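Can't paste images in this forum, so I'm doing it all in text. The chain is below; anyone willing to post the predicted structure tokens underneath?
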Amino acid sequence: MLRSRGWIMVVLLLAAESLACGRTGEAGTTPAAATEESGVATGCDERAHLIQANRLYREEMPPATGPYPSNCLYYCVMVREPAGDLTIDVRDASADLDLFVGLGSIEAVSGEALVEGQTYTWKSNEPGNDDESVEVSAPEAGTYYLEVCSYDGESTPFELEVRLR
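Text version of the structure:
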């Protein structure tokens, strides 16, 4: 009995130390180079924030500090096995935001300019402050990259939600 209490204390201490160091398992803490046995990456390009499906994120678009891509934020989400639908929504912005989605690498969404790059597979660029939404039907397994850009380089809070069904 004493021995099992000792192991419980060690586990609790390690868990407390992990929390104190900020390692909570939240999105963005997975090493980019990690992979699973299935070969599907468990991290994403260091320029993108790792997010989880079926969660709502409250984000802040900072003001642009120069030309494209300083007016953009990057995210990635893992789809571990083929699914029914992948829906990405950008909502409640007070500035004109656009959403671009690609599969496989950050280069699937980043380009030279919003007009010239055109490297995305899916996009939503509604005029003005309208909400943006992209739906990928029957998404294949892999890493999906999201590029959220402020059309005029303005700062704004916004909500980002990725749903996988």
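The two ends are 45 Å apart (CA to CA). Helices lie at 2-20.
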